[in-house]
Design goal:
Length: 223
């Protein structure tokens, strides 16, 4: 499933899947790994992958926000949040960390995910920002228009995290038209490509690896 194992970083294993991974198989793998991490039988893991084009419904999903239910396969997900899109050209990051080693603070963990995306985007000259009351990372376009470039949806089981982040590198943004992304109709979505940044997935992965350490220090400082 996760075809290539990469280096360790701060004792955390990194894996990269070269081919799109079935969503159900990915969730099953995460659940097994989370149990193994809690039992002390496996390392923490950051898994980088892409999915085939699909929609997922988080625990707060509202049926009316699935505008075109027949457009793509729809999967129920145990992560937080509402409807989102996954597909080729989007780097999905499933992050399985032992939060008991990091202060048992879910809010701080989400803050670290956000910081990770902000620092990664900065490597490509893109200013990613938080917005009060809106989970994820946003960019400001011409005229003050705001668009989401990274969606965050997490689940925690016995203080081990899973699910994680979806960063738009160069996906087909038209597919977002089949849903109200994350329940927010008044703002759009964007990608590095749509912002004029032609970055390869390998370049994005390198930036993610290099910026991870500072964002996920064992004793993070959260506001």
């Amino acid at each position: 499933m996760a075809e290539s194992a990469g280096p360790l970083r701060d004792g955390i294993e990194w894996r990269t899947s070269e081919r799109p991974v079935d969503y159900g198989a990915a969730v099953a793998f995460m659940e097994e790994r989370v149990a193994a991490i809690r039992a002390g039988e496996a390392r923490e893991l950051v898994w980088l992958l892409e999915h085939p084009s699909l929609y997922t419904a988080g625990t707060s999903a509202v049926e009316a926000e699935l505008i075109e239910p027949l457009r793509l396969p729809v999967y129920k997900s145990g992560r937080g949040g509402r409807y989102t899109y996954h597909g080729p050209g989007q780097r999905v990051l499933y992050v399985m960390l032992d939060l008991a080693r990091r202060g048992n603070d879910i809010r701080c963990y989400v803050h670290s995910l956000e910081e990770w995306m902000i620092e990664t985007l900065a490597r490509f000259g893109v200013k990613g920002e938080r917005r009060e009351g809106r989970v994820g990372i946003w960019v400001e376009r011409e005229g003050g228009r705001e668009e989401k470039i990274a969606a965050i949806g997490v689940r925690v089981r016995r203080w081990v995290s899973y699910h994680g982040v979806a960063l738009n590198v160069a996906p087909d943004l038209d597919h977002y038209g089949g849903i109200v992304p994350c329940g927010i109709a008044e703002h759009g979505v964007t990608s590095l490509r749509a912002l004029g940044v032609e970055a390869s997935m390998a370049e994005v992965d390198r930036a993610l690896f290099e910026t991870f350490g500072a964002a996920f220090a064992l004793s993070p400082v959260c506001p």
